[in-house]
């Protein structure tokens, strides 16, 4: 049994105040640790990268920076877990896509995961390459308002079957595997 699943209560700091990211962390942890009281707190944590990361490396760096900020901030440094979710885009050999990197730290180790990717229409990628942010482009194309704090591009392009929160929740669950199976990952 993992150490984290033995705790009666855990405090988790998420490196963002975006409600989608905080709720995804809460939902993932509630599923993984059903007998644990989980307190998830959103924290403003600068990514240190562009508002719209345009490469996988930049996206990962943003997530790492957010976790490190939370770990070093006096008001959040005593948490049991630190989580960052950084959404980004890249133009892969098979075309442009959006995804998120997940970074989770429990002070002793840093875990990295990545969400599924969502292929992007060329018109969207061009707008991003011209300096716009994904949420703003999607709001304009679909006549929505602040979609990045709702279903996101994922929700719009999948007609609501998947959402930012559902994809982030899944990615968080997968990224937690080493904490849930410490004995296997330490071999």
Question: If you had to describe this structure to a student in words, what would you say it looks like?
Answer:
The chain has 187 residues and is an alpha/beta fold. It has helices at residues 19-32, 56-72, 122-129, 134-142, 152-157, 164-175, 177-180, 182-185; strands at residues 9-14, 37-42, 81-92, 95-105, 110-114, 118-119. Strands 1, 2, 3, 4, 5 and 6 form a 6-stranded mixed β-sheet that branches. The two termini are 15 Å apart. The mean pLDDT is 94.
Strand content: 15-25%
- Span between N and C termini? 15 Å
Categorize the overall geometry.
Answer: globular
Main beta sheet: strand number and arrangement?
6 strands, mixed
- By DSSP (H or I, 4+ residues per run), the number of helices equals 8
Mean pLDDT: 94
- The stretches of 5 or more residues where confidence is low (pLDDT under 50) are none
User: Class by helix and strand content?
Assistant: alpha/beta
User: Level of helix content?
Assistant: 25-40%
Instruction: Please state the CA-atom Rg, rounded to the nearest Å.
Output: 16 Å
Number of strands: 6
- List the secondary-structure elements in sequence, H or E: EHEHEEEEHHHHHH
Report a brief summary of the structure.
With 187 residues, the protein is of the alpha/beta class.
Blueprint (SSEs and pairs):
Blueprint: E1 9-14, H1 19-32, E2 37-42, H2 56-72, E3 81-92, E4 95-105, E5 110-114, E6 118-119, H3 122-129, H4 134-142, H5 152-157, H6 164-175, H7 177-180, H8 182-185
Parallel strand pairs: 1-2, 1-3
Antiparallel strand pairs: 3-4, 4-5, 4-6
């Amino acid at each position: 049994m993992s150490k984290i699943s033995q705790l009666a209560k855990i405090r988790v700091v998420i490196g963002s105040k975006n409600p989608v990211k905080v709720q995804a962390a809460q939902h993932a942890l509630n599923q993984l640790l059903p007998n644990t009281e989980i307190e998830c707190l959103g924290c403003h944590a600068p990514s240190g990268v562009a508002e719209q990361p345009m490469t996988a490396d930049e996206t990962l760096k943003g997530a790492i920076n957010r976790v490190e900020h939370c770990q070093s901030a006096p008001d959040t440094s005593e948490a049991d877990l630190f989580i960052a979710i950084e959404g980004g885009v890249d133009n892969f050999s098979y075309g442009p896509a959006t995804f998120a990197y997940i970074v989770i730290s429990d002070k002793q180790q840093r875990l990295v995961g990545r969400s599924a990717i969502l292929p992007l229409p060329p018109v969207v990628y061009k707008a991003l390459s011209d300096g716009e942010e994904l949420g703003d482009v999607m709001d304009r194309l679909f006549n929505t308002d602040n979609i990045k704090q709702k279903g996101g591009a994922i929700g719009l392009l999948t007609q609501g079957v998947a959402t930012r929160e559902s994809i982030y929740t899944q990615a968080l669950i997968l990224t937690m595997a080493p904490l849930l199976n410490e004995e296997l990952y330490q071999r």
